[in-house]
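CO-FOLDING WORKSHEET

Operator: S.A.
Ligand of interest: S-adenosylmethionine
Run index: 283
Mode: holo prediction, single chain
Checklist:
[x] sequence pasted
[x] SMILES validated
[ ] output reviewed
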Amino acid sequence: MNPGEQKKALDAWETSARYWDKYRALIAQMFAPLTSGLVEEARIGIGQNVLDIGGGSGEPSLTISCIVGPTGSVMYTDPVAGMVETAQAEAGRRGLTNIQFRQCSGDDLPFPDKTFDLGIGRLSAMFFVDPVRAIREALRVVRNDGGVSFAVWGPKEANPFFSTVNDVFDRFVESSTEDPDAPDAFRFAAPGKLAGILENAGAKNVIERQLNFQIEAAISFDPFWQLRTEMSETLREKMAGLAPAQLPTIKQAVADAARRYFVSGKMSFPAEALIVSGKKSAV
Ligand SMILES: C[S@@+](CC[C@H](N)C(=O)[O-])C[C@H]1O[C@@H](n2cnc3c(N)ncnc32)[C@H](O)[C@@H]1O
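OUTPUT RECEIVED:
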């Protein structure tokens, strides 16, 4: 990405920050299995000092703050001011005192070597500008016996929470040609891709685990539609380019495609993620 593209990407996240805050309770619930998977895989426990890279509206920092307890600490980071503000405000509302906040990119971490026990990121590694450099940075700031773990989405076809909407929009609005290495939610969906990047960055004992879970919430189709079309920059852009008369047709086509995931007022989508971890030193 050139500097202009980087700025555009961060501006888009800045606009997204208000929606990630608006839907924070739903997001926490829907993606909780990803946090549990990361906590389990990275073996996060009482007393640890954990770095969260790309913490968005606050997860998994807020959950991990309770797990590490008063003898541990969390350093939340995100490059987007609006994300940092909303995450910090939520930590204040919850009275959490063992989290610190820093606005920075995963590609350039403003911390001394060997500061943390662990570095983790939930759904953020796919947006690193230079993933090898960012993973090297994460390894640099963890202790010699520490490690890093990242949760990323698996393939589009295994994630209808996204594809039921995106596939319909693609039928109506032309998409720009996709560069498989450009920052995108599915950049690391191919098995081995992020694991290879960890190895290139010098991580040892790299492990990739597939995590299958359900994205669940007690909501009907309409709030799902609103959440998806507000939270995604790609969909916001596509919506802006539509003629008003097209919107009801598209919404109905998505409702038809998503019908089987909404039963008795409850949403439940199957989902697939990868949790990719590595150690700083071979054990
Ligand atoms: C999909 S959100 C995930 C947020 C949060 N971790 C969660 O799971 O709810 C992706 C986050 O990555 C952040 N991000 C974008 N570029 C980044 C970079 N170069 N380094 C670190 N984080 C980045 C965005 O600002 C956004 O908050």
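REVIEW:
Residues 13, 27, 31, 53-57, 59, 78-80, 83, 105-107, 122-124, 127-129 surround S-adenosylmethionine (CB under 6 Å).
The mean pLDDT is 95.
[x] output reviewed
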